[in-house]
TrEMBL record:
Native organism: Thermus tengchongensis
Pathway listed: Cofactor biosynthesis; adenosylcobalamin biosynthesis
Name of the protein described by the UniProt record: Precorrin-8X methylmutase
Entry similarity comment: Belongs to the CobH/CbiC family.
Keyword vocabulary terms for this entry: Cobalamin biosynthesis, Isomerase
């Protein structure tokens, strides 16, 4: 199939010629201004889209990948894995047409009535309670987990992983000042595939950008996910 026709029919790409032209020119500018980097051909499209979404080139230096993380994420997306997120903003930011390519359901539990009631009873955060609920219901197994807001969500997730939960991929990108860097460091020691923005910087926008980049890679068949995955 002609490349232009394929992109026009693929909802992972902008659907109008003008939209595609603007996006591709933006990516060209990011590539040019970013200069040399040490990311693999499969990692860079994710970092590039994160920079594109924020106009912040610091993410070139802050973004870390566990070896095999991209491959694990693509395999999970293609298999229809659920996407569990810590903020409604992430769920709202994900393009429904792109999610329909592989049938990935987005799950946000912080507003779930049972989670809210439990948090009010125990005095814990809704983020911590949401992870506990997801672990009880088996929702963490094989899921892609996107954390762009709450470090308590990420810390609780790491504890769940230590107890045996195995998400397919964790995007650890919370933003803030309390326990943010610590939560990310804890994730980077966990035996699961992860993509992390080091330090205090992060946010829901970055998780959305990373997920859209992964969906586009998966839809384009850009990575041979049949090869052995290097992630834990």
């Amino acid at each position: 199939m002609d490349e232009l026709v394929r992109k026009r029919q693929n909802p992972a790409h902008q659907l109008t010629p003008k939209g595609r032209a603007i996006e591709e020119e933006s990516f060209r500018i990011v590539d040019e201004e970013a200069g040399p980097h040490g990311f693999s051909p499969w990692e860079w499209p994710i970092v590039r889209r994160m920079i594109h979404a924020t106009a912040d080139f610091e993410y070139k230096d802050l973004t870390r990948f566990r070896p095999g993380a991209v491959e694990a994420g693509l395999e999970a997306l293609k298999g229809g894995a659920r996407i569990l997120v810590d903020a409604r903003m992430i769920a709202c930011g994900l393009n429904p047409e792109r999610l329909r390519i592989f049938g990935n359901e987005v799950v946000e539990l912080l507003s779930h009535p049972e989670v809210v009631a439990r948090a009010q009873t125990t005095g814990g955060t809704r983020a911590e309670t949401a992870v506990a609920y997801a672990e009880e219901k088996g929702l963490l197994q094989g899921a892609i987990v996107g954390v762009g807001n709450a470090p308590t969500f990420l810390l609780a997730l790491v504890e769940a992983i230590r107890r045996g939960a195995r998400p397919a991929l964790v995007l650890g990108m919370p933003v803030g000042f309390v326990n943010v860097a610590e939560a990310k460091r804890a994730l980077m020691e966990a035996p699961v595939p992860w993509i992390v923005t080091e330090g205090r910087k992060g946010g829901s926008t970055l998780v959305v950008a990373a997920l859209h980049a992964l969906i586009r890679l998966a839809a384009d068949g850009g990575v041979d996910t049949s090869r052995t995955l290097r992630g834990g």
